Amino acid sequence: MAKFQYIIEISWLPLSNWYLFLGVDGISIFFILLTTLLFPICILACWDSIQDNVRIYFACFLSIEILLVLVFSVIDLLWFYIFFEGVLIPIFIIIGYWGSRERKIRAAYLFFLYTLVGSLLLLGCLIYISIVVGSTDYEVVSRYSFTIIEERWLWLGFFASFATKVPILPFHIWLPEAHVEAPTAGSVLLAGVLLKLGTYGFIRFSLPLFPHATVYYTPIVFVLAIAGVIYSSLTAIRITDLKRIIAYTSVAHINLVVLGIFSLTLVGLEGAILQSLSHGFVSSALFLIVGVLYDRHHTRILKYYGGLVHLIPLFTIIFVFFSIANIALPGTSSFIGEFLLLTGIFQANPLVCFFGATGIILGGAYSLWLLNRVVYGNLKTQHLQKIMDISRIEVYLFSPLIIGTLVMGFLPNIFLSPINASVSNIFVL
User: Which residue from 67, 308, 340, 358 has the least number of CB within 10 angstroms?
Assistant: First the structure.
């Protein structure tokens, strides 16, 4: 799957020479599969918790799924932008209306404004490309040779949009707020798929369309991503809100993925894509775990939990499994991705690899610290309202994520073979 396959051409405005092309390759196919896997899980996760305007709620989720599949399969820059920004509207409604606390409106607007402002620069770049190249078709634009100055300015416009979605420091402020206020299914979507829009944009557009500008700006990206890894990891250690902790761990992992992408090596890019997919499994499961606790006890404050291994052992087993997957234990999906991307980073710059690897050490610290505080220690039954192990529906939630984590950990070539064919065709120095 080196190039796009199963291409579909839809005539939209023939008089204006505006067509919609859809297709998949070895990169996009796995992001589409991840999207379609997580949506049934999101529906099950909110099966009993959403009581009002249920039809609108599910309509928003269906809209997000359709738009995300189109984002990962479209082969046109302008259409990519339309679908890319279209995702903002339903997720804005989900956070703002079905959020869990009073700050949900603020969190929704923060998410919307941060991502929209960054994307306005992307729109300006696409208008310029359309005028200069005469088309926004991906294949046509990829064959056009921009000047060095054009590349650098266009790269900055694309970077502003994708960096906000990742998010890279200092564009990360919206993410913890959105995660904390969103319902559990919304957090699963944000961590599992929406954060991948930025990394996918870097791989699909920034690297192949503007190679010289990518090399020029790589040192700046390294500095920002390293700062994101270390800052997010240290912040995750010191805060006490369970959802906010998982949100900051997501920022740390995705910034490590950005380091792998901008290593500009074949193995680094492969590892970054694999780690993005792994993060979709592991981070989504961790948010579901927090959702299970919140549904029963109606609090996400860490100090109210402790000793849960004595009360809900099956839940504890699942929590332990995804905690060790989060620290990239061999045999889990994260190990393969992190090993490959760190290998690529080391080939590009050993010093950057050293600082990036501190995220793994800090990741072990915050994951084990969180696990120990929640699962072990003294029982705090005075704060626990409903002592119940995971239900049958919750077993259905976690089972595909556990299977996906183990399959990727033990059989990575299922993913690496198609990814290698497509990455080799994009941009490798």
Answer: 358
Gap between the Cα atoms of 2 and 422, Å rounded: 4
Among 274, 305, 319, 297, which Cα is nearest to 409's?
Answer: 274
What is the longest distance spanned by two Cα atoms in the chain?
A: 71
Q: What is the pLDDT of residues 264-308, one digit of tens each?
A: 889 999 999 999 999 999 999 999 998 888 888 777 888 888 778
* Domain extent listing, the chain: 5-423
What pTM, to 2 d.p., does this model score? 0.91
Three-class SS of residue 137? Answer: strand
- Contact between 46 and 189 under an 8 Å Cβ cutoff? The reply is no
Q: Where are the alpha helices (DSSP H) in 195-332?
A: 196-201, 207-209, 211-238, 242-261, 266-297, 313-326
Instruction: Identify the helix (H) or strand (E) that includes residue 12.
Output: strand 5-13
State the virtual CA torsion across 226, 229, 231, 235 in degrees, nearest 10.
180
Is there a contact between 121 and 85 (Cβ–Cβ < 8 Å)? Answer: no
Structure tokens at 239: 């805060």
CA gap 237, 251 in Å, rounded: 13
**Mean pLDDT across the stretch 159-177?**
83
Please provide the average confidence, as pLDDT, over all residues in the chain.
85
For residue 154, which of 115, 126, 191, 117 has the smallest C-alpha distance? 126
Q: Burial-class residue 37 by CB neighbours within 10 Å (0-12, 13-18, 19+).
A: middle
In the three-class reduction of DSSP (H, G, I as helix; E, B as strand; rest coil), residue 384 is classed as coil
> Do the beta carbons of residue 188 and residue 38 sit within 8 Å?
yes
Please answer whether residues 391 and 312 qualify as being in contact, where contact means their C-beta atoms are separated by less than 8 angstroms: no
